[in-house]
Amino acid sequence: MLQFITKRTATLVAAVVVSSFAVFLIPYFTPGDPVRKIIRSRVAGDAVDESAVQGLSESLGLNDPLAVQYFRWLGDFFSGDMGLSFVSRTPVAEQVLPALSVTLSLVTMALVLAAAVSLPLGILAGLRPGSTADKAITAVTQALIAMPEYWVAPVLVLVFALKLSVLPTAGWNDLSSAVLPALTLALRPISFFTSAVRTGIIDAASADHVPAARARGLSQGQAILRHVVPNGLVPLSTLFAVWFAGLLGGSVIVEVIFAVPGMGRLLFDAVVNSDIPLAQGGVVVVVALAVGVTTLADFVHRFLSRTVGASLA
Amino acid sequence: MRSLLRPPALIAAALTLTLSGCGFSGTQTQASQPSAAADTSQRIVVDNFRAPVANWAVESDAAYILSLSGCLETLTTFNQAEGKVLPSLATEWKQTSPLDWDFSIRQGVKFQDGTDLTAESVVSALNHVLDAKVPARAFNRTMISSVTTVDAQTVRVSTPAENPLVPYRLASVNTGILSPAAYKAEGLDPFGHCTGPFTPVSEKAKQSLTLDRNENYWGGDVQLAGAEIRFITNGATRAAQVQTGEADISLSIPVASLAALKADDGVSVLGADSPRTATLYMNNGRAPLDDVDVRKAIRDALDLDALAASVYEGAALPATGPFAPSEPWAGEKQDKQQQNLEQARKRLAEAGYTADRPLEIIAIVERAEFADVAAVVQENLKNIGIPVTIQSKEYASAEPDVLAGNYDMLLSQRNRLIDIADPIGFLTADYTCKGTYNLSHFCDPEYDRIIAEAATTVDTTERYKLYAEAGQILQDKAVNAWLVNEQATDAIRKNVLSYEQDPLSRYVLTAKTGKAAS
Hints:
The complex is a heterodimer.
Chain A: H1 2-29, H2 34-42, H3 50-59, H4 66-78, H5 92-127, H6 132-145, H7 149-163, H8 175-205, H9 209-215, H10 220-250, H11 252-257, H12 263-272, H13 276-312
Helix pairs in contact in A: 1-13, 5-6, 5-8, 5-10, 5-13, 6-8, 7-8, 8-10, 9-10, 10-13, 12-13
Chain B: H1 7-19, E1 43-48, H2 62-68, E2 76-79, E3 84-87, E4 90-97, E5 100-105, H3 119-130, E6 146-151, E7 154-158, H4 166-169, E8 183-184, E9 187-188, E10 198-204, E11 208-213, E12 226-231, H5 235-244, E13 249-250, H6 258-262, E14 267-282, H7 292-301, H8 304-310, E15 316-318, H9 341-351, E16 359-364, H10 370-382, E17 388-393, H11 395-404, E18 409-412, H12 424-431, H13 445-455, H14 460-476, E19 481-493, E20 496-497, E21 514-515
Parallel strand pairs in B: 1-12, 1-13, 16-17, 16-18
Antiparallel strand pairs in B: 2-3, 4-5, 5-7, 6-7, 8-9, 10-11, 11-12, 13-19, 14-18, 14-19, 15-19, 20-21
């Protein structure tokens, strides 16, 4: 176990360092001058003053070699300083942490919603594969995969905000304002979770120990509850973690459409504006969290497998 | 509500405006009904299209948010309807020498923190802008040499060369005056430090700014109890919010949302000429577009009426040249560009153009409609035998090639009044031989001479005549193909009172803005 933890921790550090370096390089290898992008983000409009470009470049240390800039940032980071945003000149941590808390709340809500919907659907479909209910559930959940967020979001606004007037169109104020963005984010996970649960249930139900349990006198319902459902849910823990990690930085469209001040929007703006310290700080936090969550999911997966396995022995 | 689908009437009105010397888009700017009684306990919600990114730095675009929300005020203001600079925190001004302008500071004005507005506080505020690392376009060391106090009530603004536009520059929101306590080492703090009718009281980062009425406003009673400015960057969301009533005013409505808003009884859609013209930039420095006949042929091939009606759904007017017809410097010759395929083919043949040299259009992705505009232009040019390919790019990735002259055509647009309510900055940067933003790579000594003369011409009428002459050169030489004059479109709930639309969104909430009881 110790070896597993050490290995996982090393993976986490490596992932953070590699991804931060990749993000650091992006502004330099995409067309357009990073300093001009920074200026444009502060002062919209097209013509950028050349003396301002020179002055800003100098003051931000952007004339130094890339390696110097990167190791300077790395040194600051390991001493607990994520630096100042190039655009707002405020501490990166002051922007990242509030945005992170917003996205964490949104993603958690979306995944809890997805799990709440997909568990009964997946179990229902998995217990009666090939039935009308199974076919209907599979058809609907597969259709959800094909619905992109930029289409789903306006449709939900149209129905729930404009037609029914029961939910706000955008913002991040109270629980009601989180419903539509969380629902939009939940649709695809619902599809994947349902499919995973269905497959898990089918596999578990066809395992030898289920008839054995029935032979020991358990009713059909008891056998399902004790042996089929727990086994069928094991794959969900990993899937849950993967989606959690993916949505942390991948909720850009939803955050823009619903004006949610989260990490997706923050990272998107940071990259577009060449706000290197902000992008680096944001990515490091997201990557660390994502790797941490998937590592945790591995633990949970092992634990569940062992527990379930032990219960079957 | 005025229909946006009557271009001839609009153009006629605009021409009348121009001839009478009124200001840019004066009568096209619409106002909501002022007659109903305002309920002074009401608060208002405004959806703005940009969020502050620069920690409220006054030299950044954050100044627009502070100004539109009725917090930040400047020495002068530009009145869109009258087309002239009016007093604000300065009561009067005069040019005391070719290089000096003296501004008399309004007496009895207090900042929201209770301190007095003085000549010294104005000098301190303006010098803060001048010393900014990323300088404001309208007010920086290249055009302003110093700002000093003359006496307790007078501020002197000096320029390195004679400059008749100093009062215009001091109407720029970037020259907003805040109390000395606002300028802190860690950045600007506008909370409680403005002079305007509303004082900011709280902020939700990247979400909104909340303001309360300034009970001691120097400009009279404030009709609203307060306001919330929301930062909603998605246009469709802004449109939806004004429909649901979550917002009272939504700025900059996208074309795609207009039909739904116009059909809503609770909403008024206001349109005003914006100083933006969607333009097909042509690289005058590279063959075959270095030939004026090829450029004219391209212009002749374009069906601007169809373009305005289809892609812009009538929310933009076919362009008549580099300026909108309603601009006071547009000149009298305002012939609409008519499609003439035969003439276009003839010009191409005379220029010796063959289809062996296809052209490429870069359509910038920041403006979603340009993908469709590019397709229409492509079809138009195909009709005269010019094969065109389209590349969609982010502006930032296209810019290096465009500035270096490595492109054929670019679909983009520019704000002509980006610095001040006068096009001198735009005409200089974009079209003079040494222009710092000469995307067209156009160079004409006569044009440069006219612009140089205009830059030092104090008399407004004379200066505008020179701008018109310069514009005519751009038109005669077919430097670019100007496609449609864009409209600034705002939507307001019907119970909003005394709202005057500003196409540049500098002034939105004022002391007069009100709201009837719902």
